[in-house]
Each structure stands twice: as C-alpha cells, then as structure tokens.
Structure to design on (510 residues):
C-alpha cells in the first residue's frame, strides 16, 4: 500500500510526463520546420501523429495485466532514452537519410505511444487508493497543467537558452530521474529482484543522457555542419531562430533556421541590385526605411548616398542586429553600417511596426526572408502593402526582393500582382547571384515610374552595377514571362503555398 505523500508525488509524475511528452512533440515540430520548411504543415503532421500515437498507447495498455509498477518504470526509461536523444539523432541523420520525414514521424509516434501507455498504467496503480472521480479529475488536471507549462516555457526559456539538442537531453534526464524516483515511490509494489534491476537501468540511462548533454555543443555543431555544408564559425539561438555562420570556399555564410541568407563572396550582387535601382531614381533621398536586412548589408549600400540623413532599420531579431554590430567578419563586410549615427535600429515585427505613426520616407528597401511560412508570408500581403502606403510620399520608391522568378515563377509573380492589387505601379527586374542563381526583385511606386529617368548617378564604387548594365536588369527573358497567380491576402496566404510547392526539393534561398 502507498501512503498519502507518495500519492501526491505520483501526481507530480503525471505533471512531468505531460511536460516531457509535449516538449518532445514541440521539438519534433520545430526540427521538422527547421529542416523541411512549411512550419504549419510540419507541425500539423507532428501533432496529429503524436495525438493518435497516444491513443494507440492507451489502447495497448489494456494488455499489460501484471507488474504494473515495473512496466510503468520501464516505459518511463524508454521514453527518457528515446525522447532525450530524439533531437541529436534527427540533427545528425538529416543530411544522410532520404527518409527523414518517416524517421521523424516514427520517433514522434513511438514517443506518443509511450506517453499514452504511462497515464493509464499510473491511473490503474492509483485506483486502489482513490475514489475514481477524484483519480480522473486529479490526473487530468495535472496532465493539462503540465501541457500548459511546456507550451509556455518551450519558446520563452528552453529553446532560446538551451537550444533544441540540450532541451531534448535535459527532458530525457528529467524523465530518467522520474523513472529512478518512481522505484522509491512504488517500492511497495515492486518485487525486490525487479527493484535493483530497475534502479541500475535508470542509472545507466541517466548516465548516457548526462554524457550526451555534456557533448551537446559538439553534437549540435556536427549536425549543423553536416546539413549546412560548412564549418560552423559562430552560432547562437535567439527567441526567434537559430543563427549560424559557416565558413567555406574563401568566404562565410549566414544561415537562419537552416536557410541560407547570404554568401559573403557574392552578396554584393544581391544587395546592389536590391538597393540602387530605387536610390538613383530619387532626387536627393534623405529618409530611407529598411525592413528586414538586419545583417546591415543593404544599409551599407544606402550609406553610399551623401544626401541620406536618416535610415530606419526594422528587423525582428535583436540577436541578428547585435551580431551585425559586433561579429568581426560581418562587421567588416557591412562596413560597420549599423554603427553609423544616421542609422536607427528598431527590433520589432514589421507587421506590428507598420501601424505606428512616422514621418514619410523617400525610399523603402524590403529585404524580408523568402515567404516560407505564414509568419513571413503576412509581410507580402495586400494588407501589409496598403499599410506601407501611409509611410511614403506619392513619388517614393520601394524596392523588394521577390525570390527566384526562374525556380518559383508563381511565387515571384504573386508578389508582383499583390503589389499591383495594393495600388502600386510595379516594375519587375532580376539579377544573377551565383550562390542563388537568377534572383527576382520589384520596383514599386504609388505614381507612374519612368525607368530611363535617373536623378542620381550610379555610385562609382559598386562592384556589379554600372550605368551601362543597370537597364538590363529590367529586361525580362522569355523564361521569366508574366503570370497571373492568385493575390496574396491575409486570409489565404496563397504565396506561402506557391513557395512551398515550387521550392520543394531545392536548396533554400535567402
């Protein structure tokens, strides 16, 4: 028989089981979106697989008829081992297995089965000590509270400060501790020869997980270097994303959540094409807005115009803009642009910031990441572009990156048509960037534009653009002919669907 104190502690086991189970599910969903893109689809698959597996586990629990306490501890240890090592295994396996999604969903299913087995077993252990109604209400209450705790702490504490691999191993360690702890709580229900065997296995699993935690940085680095294809020279996790710099072929690269943002050897082509067509079409621009572009490379190009008095940079992640001011290779590449006294950095979601009152800008440079998720896709909607009209003059020019028109033509023309639907005159153009191939942009204005009218000379220190080749950017070849896809709106996010379909199977873009 169990006394009242262990009963309460067993309820805490329910809390820990719920927290750990949901953490493993969130880890799998995050890794799936990190590796495979389309976070909504991946999370939906992970959640559906996990919940159905819990149902399977609950159903299978009926076949465990004897040694309930022993079975509970053994399942707890299996969950600790599998869940704890899930993130390291998935990170290391991604570059080498073609069946990564089945592997990930298989691990999620196994974790769900173990969690689904545990709760019915624990309820059957406790049923002799409590009224059935009290038992069900207490177990479910602790289960739901545990889910709430996990869902709050995962994005705010665990991922930003521990990272995915350490978080996985920490909760594996917690599960193993629960297994060891349960051998003491359930001692009256365990046979002596089972007791010491379970404790020994608990210590072995705990030791392996602690060893994994101590090597977590090496495991993370090894996994990232394998998947990103270069030596990691600096990496950090922020509340928003994983930031990694790699080094290869004489340059360095920036990855955000595994997606390549630029290669230092040819980024000048991308950023010169993004910035200068808008700047030279204006008469002495003074105020410039940059949205995205926390690396400071677009700002570097804008500062080449002496008339510019103020640049407002709106970028979500302070970790990126801080690195742009302090990480030596990036600081050298962007020529300390974000440290210039004319630059004001605002770390805020552009979708929220766009509603704030400001003086109008003469030029706007939009350097958002590609629309691979709904959280980014909302920044390419008619809603956002119409809000932007309140930030500019009638003749202000907007330049925006629009993904590759060659690889993703529907995505490219979706952005163009969405700008037109929002009331802009739009001129599509493109440039060749060796790392990414043919890349697409758009120049937009609320009034009619004349491309032949250049109010400012092309800066003489550019490496890619000059007076002769600038007009060639606006001549679209036959394989980038105009299309008429669906308009991207907040309530349909057609662009995200196009982007996922067209880029599926390709290396990710900036």
């Amino acid at each position: 028989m169990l006394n009242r104190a262990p009963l309460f502690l067993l309820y805490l086991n329910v809390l820990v089981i719920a927290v750990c189970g949901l953490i493993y599910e969130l880890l799998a969903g995050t890794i799936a979106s990190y590796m495979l893109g389309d976070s909504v689809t991946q999370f939906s698959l992970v959640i559906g697989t996990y919940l159905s597996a819990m149902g399977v586990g609950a159903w299978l629990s009926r076949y465990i008829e004897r040694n309930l306490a022993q079975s509970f501890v053994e399942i707890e240890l299996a969950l600790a081992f599998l869940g704890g090592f899930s993130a390291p295994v998935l990170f290391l396996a991604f570059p080498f297995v073609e069946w990564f999604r089945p592997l990930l969903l298989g691990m999620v299913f196994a974790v769900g089965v173990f969690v689904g087995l545990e709760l019915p077993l624990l309820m059957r252990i406790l049923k002799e000590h409590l009224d059935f109604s009290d038992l069900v209400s207490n177990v479910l209450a602790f289960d739901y509270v545990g889910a709430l705790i996990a869902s709050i702490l995962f994005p705010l504490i665990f991922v930003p400060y521990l990272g995915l691999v350490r978080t996985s191993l920490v909760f594996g360690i917690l599960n193993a501790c629960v297994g060891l702890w349960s051998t003491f709580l359930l001692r009256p229900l365990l046979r002596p020869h089972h007791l010491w065997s379970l404790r020994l296995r608990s210590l072995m699993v705990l030791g392996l997980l602690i060893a994994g935690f101590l090597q977590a940085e090496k495991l993370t680095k090894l996994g990232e270097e394998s998947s990103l294809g270069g030596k990691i020279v600096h990496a950090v996790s922020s509340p928003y994303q994983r930031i990694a710099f790699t080094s290869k072929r004489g340059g360095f690269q920036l990855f955000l959540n595994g997606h390549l943002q630029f290669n230092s050897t040819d980024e000048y082509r991308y950023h010169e094409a993004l910035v200068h067509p808008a700047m030279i079409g204006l008469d002495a621009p003074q105020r410039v807005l940059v949205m995205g572009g926390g690396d400071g490379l677009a700002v570097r190009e804008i500062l080449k115009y002496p008339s510019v008095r103020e640049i407002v940079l709106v970028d979500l992640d302070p970790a990126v803009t801080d690195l742009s001011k302090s990480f030596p290779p990036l600081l050298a590449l962007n020529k300390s642009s974000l440290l210039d006294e004319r630059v004001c950095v605002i770390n805020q979601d552009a979708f929220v910031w766009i509603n704030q009152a400001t003086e109008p800008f003469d030029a706007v440079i939009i350097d958002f990441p590609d629309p691979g998720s709904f959280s980014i896709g909302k920044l390419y909607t008619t809603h956002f572009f119409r809000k932007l009209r309140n930030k500019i003059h009638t003749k202000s020019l907007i330049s925006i990156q629009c993904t590759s028109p060659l690889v993703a033509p529907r995505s490219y023309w979706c952005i163009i048509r969405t700008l037109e639907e929002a009331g802009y005159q739009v001129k599509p153009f493109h440039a060749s960037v060796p790392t990414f191939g043919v890349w697409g942009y758009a120049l937009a204005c609320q009034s009619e534009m004349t491309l032949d009218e250049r109010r400012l000379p092309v800066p003489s220190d550019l490496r890619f653009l000059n007076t002769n080749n600038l007009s060639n950017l606006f001549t679209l070849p036959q394989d980038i002919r105009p299309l008429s896809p669906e308009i991207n709106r907040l309530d349909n996010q057609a662009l995200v669907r196009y982007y996922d379909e067209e880029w599926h199977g390709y290396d990710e873009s900036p």
